[in-house]
Write a structure and sequence with these properties.
Largest sheet: 5 strands, mixed
Strand content: 15-25%
Subcellular location: Cell membrane
Helix content: 25-40%
Organism: Stieleria varia
Number of helices: 3
Protein name: Biopolymer transport protein ExbD/TolR
Structural class: alpha/beta
CATH topology of one domain: Nucleotidyltransferase, domain 5
Distance between the termini: 106 Å
CATH architecture of one domain: 2-Layer Sandwich
Strand order of the largest sheet: 3-2-1-4-7
CATH class of one domain: Alpha Beta
Radius of gyration: 33 Å
Keywords: Cell membrane, Membrane, Protein transport, Transmembrane, Transmembrane helix, Transport
Main location: membrane
């Protein structure tokens, strides 16, 4: 038996416009309130291996200390590396760093030597850059020889 319907059924449609608006508002809200935080606890600490007490330590295990002293005008008055007075000659600084560190580079898995630059408060910045240039490496023909890549600064002295 067939039932005829003269009245056509109304189709119900769901209006998605307001739902899309809400989704975009939520997206904008979360993007605008997102805060990037630094990783905590990511320390690169290398503990020394257990050894006998009479073992000789490598002088490059500790940071090498470069001391830059300034005169009253802010010019470089004197410079020393590990207590050795070098005057104001940056080539002497480089030579002494090469003697302490060598030109082979760090061993596999080793991060290499570290230098701590200790300056007077009124020392001109150009002298600090010259010292960093002298200890970081040099150019031998077309080849760049790296000496020290890790450089840190001590608190400036007044």
């Amino acid at each position: 038996m067939k039932i005829r319907r003269d009245v056509e059924q109304e189709k119900s449609q769901l209006d998605m416009t307001s739902m899309i608006d809400v989704v975009f508002l939520l997206l904008v809200f979360f993007v605008m309130t997102f805060k990037i935080v630094e990783l905590e606890g990511d320390f690169s600490i290398h503990m020394p291996l257990a050894g006998t007490s009479n073992s000789v330590s490598d002088p490059t295990d500790l940071p090498l200390k470069v001391r830059l002293r300034a005169d009253a005008d802010g010019k470089l008055a004197s410079m020393s590396l590990e207590g050795i007075d070098l005057g104001t000659d940056f080539t002497k600084l480089r030579t002494n760093v090469i003697q302490l560190v060598g030109t082979d580079g760090p061993a596999e898995g080793d991060e290499g030597p570290e230098i701590e630059v200790d300056t007077d408060y009124n020392l001109r910045y150009a002298h600090v850059i010259e010292a960093i240039t002298a200890v970081s490496g040099y150019k031998d023909g077309d080849q760049v020889v790296k000496l020290v890549e890790k450089i840190k600064f001590a608190k400036p002295r007044r």
